[in-house]
Amino acid sequence: MDYLQISTERCSMRPSKRDELVRKVLPVFYREGFHATGMDALVSETGISKTTMFKHFRTKDDLILAVLRHRDETFRNWLFRRLDETGLPPRERLLALFDVLKEWFSEPGFRGCMFIKASAEFQDPEHPAYVQSAEHKRLLLTALTRMCREAEVQNPAQLARQLLILKEGAIVAAHMGFDPDPAGAAKTAAESLVAIDTAQ
Amino acid sequence: MDYLQISTERCSMRPSKRDELVRKVLPVFYREGFHATGMDALVSETGISKTTMFKHFRTKDDLILAVLRHRDETFRNWLFRRLDETGLPPRERLLALFDVLKEWFSEPGFRGCMFIKASAEFQDPEHPAYVQSAEHKRLLLTALTRMCREAEVQNPAQLARQLLILKEGAIVAAHMGFDPDPAGAAKTAAESLVAIDTAQ
DNA sequence: GAATATATGTACCGATCTGTACATATTGGA
DNA sequence: TCCAATATGTACAGATCGGTACATATATTC
Does the domain made of A64-199 have the CATH classification 1.10.357.10? Predict the structure, then answer.
């Protein structure tokens, strides 16, 4: 495991090969899946030699784990920065979550949530990829709960859980294509939940 | 492909080897995943010889497809039969969906939704396993919409979409373990949605 | 420009993958 | 009891899997 490895970029050094590797490999795993993507496929799709890959990551699992950690960081950063940029007051910012989701769904390369897919491929609760995926969701819940507190709703913990469930459901709906506008439907639902909470 | 193959059981003949095979293989795929489960593992876990497997299914993909079709049928039958058994009036029956989900989540072997996982492993929208998974969700949406109409809500189509999103979100939450009672949270949310719809 | 570290290309290892060949049991119906 | 169909066990083919050895090339640093 390389849990303790620290990205050189976070230390403000120049971009390391290791980080370049993770960035190049991530979209392939995202698009094709983890088991379905062999190391040879990664080599031919990224142009990075296999020798280099195994110099930076002892095993394929270690590489997958680094990819998931990178995704966790960039996704949460992206999501909450987008919410901040709206400049909306706390209560409306909660609902803006679903506008941001809608943007994401409409991106051409959208293929669902990487962590839902990782937990589908690595189901053993002891597996680091599963643990990392669950942790990502837990961090989202924590951040959403804080946002709900800032919005001064009656029951921040419960509303946050419900909003997160709506978010995950909308992602599944978008990925599986059984709803033409899952983010819109989820946002309407969220508006109802916030209104009910306020009315109490 | 064996799309057109008809289960002998549906024709009220005696249980065929083919159906026995699907039934025995399903839990292994469900528990371990599709790519992660090799044909040899299926042989050793079910006791059915490899020769027999490939006599009834030309390829592993055909076997997976038969498993998904079987799951689609049994899951929807199970779900709506449970809802019928409640004997509740239409409106309360909508909410009972989340009580039934709660039961499912608490089963010892629960490992999330097989179709979410299948669409995570077979992401190509042309892949039969993806198509079958999307179709399963579409059928659920159709049935939910009918239930909403029977409950005489204001906007059956929209409420059905929202309920389905809540259901999928609750399944993800249950599978990834970031919520102690996802069905409960989703049910509370659903109650709000139904109440709002009624008030209009 | 020499020395050191890092990246590449190729060729390979043993294991496992899907799928097959074939000879032997086992079953069910006439 | 005989026949036909079906299931089994073993052994294997060909491809691909994750991962390594090793010699060469490239870049950085002093």
Answer: yes
